[in-house]
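README: folding subset

This subset contains proteins for which both the sequence and a predicted structure token string are available. Records are stored as plain text. Below is the entry for ROK family protein (321 residues), shown exactly as it appears on disk.
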Amino acid sequence: MPADSAALVAALDIGGTKIAGALVDGRGGLLVRAQRPTPARQDGAVVMAAVADVLRELRACGLWPRVRAVGIGSAGPVDAAAGTVSPVNVPGWRGFPLIAEVGRRTGGLPATLVGDGVAMTAAEHWTGAARGRANALCMVVSTGVGGGLVLGGRLHPGPTGNAGHIGHISVDLDGERCACGGRGCVERIASGPHIARRALDAGWLPGPDGDRSAAAVAAAARAGNEPARAAFARAAQALAAGIAATATLVEIEVAVIGGGVAGAGDVLFAPLRERLRDYATLSFASGVEVLPARLGSDAGLVGAAAAAAQEHGLWGALPGR
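--- output ---
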């Protein structure tokens, strides 16, 4: 498919809370948006009907004739080779043929499917904190922990679209059982719910509003609460170990961290950078830079579009082309 500066990509960002869609241009601009709540506890057909509503709204826009491809970033696991998704937080979709269903509703446009962590990575590499870096790890640290890789200047989704899923690297060999079935995963220690659980177990008490979120723990840590500070220090240690392992394996230059937990700022980033020095000790891994993500909640849409553009040869100026 030749490069076409007027071409647009229809992007979908599918999660357990919302299904977002947009038409994205070659500069990463979101020209038209549509969104529906995810009926996550309904059956698969009801969830797909919400996706279809988003696509129907996008197709009704006068810009639709310029759409050349569809990019989909989905909560995972995903299987890009099979075109299926099995999001942990959407029980009605198990091996759901999302690519085929989307194709039926877009006139057979070529579609690219990646995990949501990979989509975030594509976005940060294209227009965010990893722009201009040839080798990067980008992470979403939120309710879960996901990620993706840029290697040799190109997004590296892997055969199934899940490469770089750092949340399920084990960093505590005898640690607690993770929802994935493994033990001591980064996600089991560093995700928002587990930061809050660790702080509560250590004696942190929520304020009068009863907020038990990781954001509330971060606020307490900034105020000097020791159990809250310790919970973030433990999360930072787990993230540092996972980043160092990745740097040792594939020689990344930068680790970009986004998601709700990253909103804690220096409560997370200061101990993370300090502990990274303990783990990334080899000369080729020790220079990894840790940066906050830039794109926020639009990263999934921008990244889904970028992944599709890379696969289908759109937008010749896209990084990596």
